[in-house]
Amino acid sequence: MDVPRETATAVFGTALPLAERYAELLATDGLTRGLLGPREAPRLWSRHLLGSAVLARACPATGVVADIGSGAGLPGIPVALVRPDLTVRLVEPLLRRATFLQEVVATLELPRVEVLRARAEDCRWSADLVLARAVAPLARLVPWCLPLVAPGGSLLAVKGDRAHDELASAEPVLRRSRAVSWEVEELGADVLDAPVRVVRVRVG
Fold first, then answer.
1. Which domains are assigned to the chain?
2. What is the pLDDT along the chain (204 residues), one digit of tens a residue?
3. pTM higher than 0.90 for the full model?
4. How much is the CA Rg of the chain, to the nearest whole Å?
5. Bridge-partner residues for 130, per DSSP?
6. CA 30 vs CA 22, 95, 106: distances in Å
7. Cβ atoms of 41 and 68 closer than 8 Å
8. Of 32, 66, 171, 195, which residue is the least packed, with the fewest Cβ within 10 Å?
């Protein structure tokens, strides 16, 4: 664990043992199956697990959260661990990644997490919050993801240092969409060395 244990406990609470098991799966099967780069292993907790889990703070009180292009389950699985009351859909088009996700969900026994092998643009359901991390530039994400956002819901795109620039580039697309507002937010400043910077797009 590359962060103090008390920091991980502050973020995951009673779900920390499950988070540790997930970290083991990422550091073993995730690496050998090419779902996580070897350079990411030393910063697995600080960059990936905690950086994903703090997104739970932006989740709705109830409802469905969708993780688009879930890959190895980031950020969807950490969010689901922190918020087991939510239904979390992990949307991933590639078979080998979807297979890994199904194995993780079964191993961790997460009854409210669903794995869907699909592209976002092929889905015909809606979610109260749609998450996207390391998927595509915001201008491309908006037409893929906003159709999945339920009225009154949001798209939350993890963008880091590029957040303001990507938001500026995507404004013409946003103005032609269902979006009613958009802004950059920071999450986790109290527990992370650097907060997670996201773009939130709200839908009317």
1. 5-203 (3.40.50.150)
2. 887 798 899 999 999 999 999 999 999 999 889 888 888 877 889 889 999 999 999 999 999 999 999 999 999 999 999 999 999 999 999 999 999 999 999 999 999 999 999 999 999 999 999 999 988 899 999 999 999 999 999 999 999 899 999 999 999 999 999 999 999 999 999 998 889 999 999 998
3. yes
4. 16
5. 66, 155
6. 10, 14, 15
7. no
8. 32
16, 21, 27: which is closest to 53 by C-alpha?
Answer: 16
- Residue 25 burial class via C-beta count within 10 angstroms: exposed 0-12, middle 13-18, buried 19 and up: buried
For tokens 């030393």, name the residue: 42
- Strands (E) in the chain, as ranges, are 64-68, 87-91, 113-116, 127-133, 149-158, 179-187, 196-203
Residue corresponding to tokens 């303001």: 164
